Amino acid sequence: MAERSTPWWFSGDSTAGEPASGDSSTTPGSTNPGSADSGMSLGSLIAGAQQLFDWASELVLAPHAVHGDPREHPDCLICKGTALVQGVRSEPVSPRSPREITWIPVERQGF
Amino acid sequence: MRLLLLSGTGGAGTSTIARATALQAVADGARVQLIDLGNVREASVARAAAGQWLGALAADILVLRDSERVLPEELAVGPGVDEFLALAAIAECASDQEIDFVVVDVGPLGHLARLLMTIDTLEVIAAALMTPAMAIARDDVDTPLSELRTELQNIRECLHSGDTAIRLVCLPDDRSIRELESAALIASLYGVDVDLIYVNQVPREKDDWPKSWASSRRRQARAIVESSAAIPTRILPLREQQGDAVVTRLRVVKKNRPVWSHHAESDSERVESTATGFAWNIPVHIPSRGELRICRTDDRAIIEIDGVTRVRELPSVLRRCIMTRAVATPNGLRIELEPDPDVWRSNG
């Protein structure tokens, strides 16, 4: 019996979380993304994205909603990013070393 | 000559002489453009036309530093905007092949000074803003800055052409000598020839003027002529009756040859090699008195003569050199430079 080469998380069926037993005739080279045979469907991708968004909302966006000054919340991903962007914007466009002025002696002749 | 800039002490008759010069040139068959920089209406029209572009550019630059957006209309009154617009108009007329001769009534001597200094000021600001980071981050700002520098270069070429000259107008009074010296120094330091000084409203001996007053005026006129040895002078008579202009036409289209000129073969700006390095010869008519200071910062030399300052970009060959000393003569500056040992590898 051939080993299924498709990653287990491509599957959207009820056995997600365990390697799924599938059609033994499916070969790695013939995997067709999006087909039911491959275990990877558009619906499953959308569902995954939705889960990811829900997770981000719950763990990141919701706590950040009450954050004021980004510098006071270094553990918050969004605050950290905001502080980083503000730091870049406040830097000079072209930081340069202090400029020097060198005076030279001037001699008058022929006056 | 293609471009003539007229400027004078207040009330000396600059506008009258500009008009008389233009009229005579027309009578001689030339296609003439007379530009009056003192005309407020024309200046406001020019601001409305070009101030939008310049103001928008400045507003964009200010926004880069997290400042509030400034409206172009608010910046149109800023120092240098009117001068830049006037210079752009002059350069456009001077490059017009349909025009033979451009006469510009600049107005008071202070306006002339600001006009000549504006180009350098804007070039320094534009160069400081045009960093590689700016080019990458803000193409929308970098492009207009490039256009601004191109326009400034066109204006500079126009003013420094051998076909351009400044004529100064003064009254025969005791303040004129000092003011003329200052104006001539600024013109010289900024690379434009003053080819004639008009001493206007000098009473004639045959006219019926109070004798002591007329004698005093004529004496002061002679003093101006003597003090302006390097620049040709022309005395114009005082009109006898109000409204009866003595000077109606002036045939002065041909450029006078001053004793000293930026465009003389012997006095042109050049870099020459010496036993120790290089010498940068800058033609400028230096007065016998007054403080003279020169310094270097980055790739620029700052030259200060009797309170008049000019910032000059070093010629590229001199940028890896150290300025060691300068010699000032009545006809120019000679700045001596040696290769920078930190940059140039020694042959030894």
Description:
The complex is a heterodimer of chains A (111) and B (348). By secondary structure, chain A is mainly alpha-helical. Helix content of chain A is 33%, strand content 5%. Chain A contains two helices and two strands. Chain A is elongated. Residues 16-36 and 92-96 of chain A have low confidence and may be disordered. Chain B is α/β, with parallel strands linked by helices and 348 residues long. In chain B, a hairpin with a 2-residue loop joins strand 12 and strand 13. The mean pLDDT of chain B is 82. In chain B, 39% of the residues lie in helices and 24% in strands. Chain B has nine helices and 13 strands. In chain B, 36% of the residues are buried. The A-B interface holds A 89-90, 93-94, 99-111 and B 64, 66, 131-134, 137, 288, 292-298, 302, 322-330, 335.
Keywords:
heterodimer, A: 111 residues, mainly alpha, 2 strands, 5% strand, elongated, B: 348 residues, alpha/beta, 6-stranded parallel β-sheet, 4-stranded antiparallel β-sheet, 9 helices, 13 strands, globular
